User: Fold this.
Amino acid sequence: MPTISLTVNGKPVSAEADTRQLLSVFLREQLGLTGTHIGCDTSQCGVCVIHVDGKAVKSCTMLALQADGADVTTIEGLASEGEMHPMQEAFRDHHALQCGFCTPGMVMMSVVLARDNPDLDDDAIRHGLEGNLCRCTGYQNIIHAVRAGAKAMKG
Amino acid sequence: MYEFQYHRPESLDEAAKIFAGADDPKFLAGGMTMIPVMKQRLAMPSDIIDLSRIGELTGLSAGAGMVTIGAMTPHAEVAGSKEVEKAIPALAALAGGIGDPAVRNRGTIGGSIANNDPSADYPAAVLGLNATVHTTARDIAADAFFTDMFETALEDDELITRVSFPAPEKAAYAKFANPASRYATAGVFVAKTATGIRVAVTGAGACVFRVEAMEQALSKDFSPGALDGIAVPADELNADIHASAEYRSHLIGVLARRAVLQTG
Assistant:
């Protein structure tokens, strides 16, 4: 099996990856980072969204080998020194989840939406989350949370 | 997925050598279609040649009435480019409406048009703007590039290197997006170009196509009303669980009018 080397949540990692292994599976099974969920596995639902070189991607639609040399951030890498990321705080404060299955992907996508557009309005939030599905249909509180999280990130 | 060998060459020459030496190789661009297809075991390539490290295929430039986009340029870069926005705003808007943000960060223009999905957005811009597809072997005019459902003029070992779009006088793209996938249930690109009016329809037929009757009507009178009474017959169109052929025929008329209005 080939070995890949990448940075995950700030730490260098080298591990074996099967040629056919998806990045989402590699993170969960080789690295034990189970915060990245696997939902539809067909690049539609967005629960597997992570950041690769600073960009939001669906990790079920990337081969692990394609991440060789990349800088990857998963939901586990957002909090620092025991402090939740402002977007995570906002999701908690606004009760932006019911079952929580979509939450890691929602948060990871929202972080880059707010980073790239600090003045996110509701329309931009709704369009930005088009590729993230919540089957509890808790969208309204998610919109509230992302608005608040973006404001908090702006500082 | 079936087993395959993975390669990530750093030049077109290296990619060509790997391709020539493999049994049944496939090129991998952004992977937004190729990887799902492999997951479903609908494709069984012996070798995957990942093009993401080939510098010759990236980059974007705009100037002298022309926008040129490297084949491996992701949709997000085209959508966010100030140069594209200035030269051909309809092209930037189209790129910004493909899929969702995560898909736009990976999916590429080269991958999209080489795949020629009947519901993809980019083919409408390529045909509507009379773009030229540059490959490792030749230059292909948009009118000769898209040949049938998932079929193009490309040879198996031929790679798209870049696509050049002449800036139109004005243009707009209107689509009716499938609410789940964001693919076009139907999409119409209308452009007023140096060589005349072009109307390209995606999402509705086997692959993108032009509607000559609409082009002629708009040449005489560039207004939504000029399209009254012009319809693409339903028997030439796709029907599936998302929309009947008759509905698609109706959508083409509505979207063409909207596109004309949007050009302002």
Observations:
- The helical segments of chain A are 23-30, 86-93, 103-116, 122-128, 139-154.
- Chain A has two domains: 3-76, 86-154.
- The two ends of chain A are 46 Å apart (CA to CA).
- The longest helix of chain A spans residues 139-154.
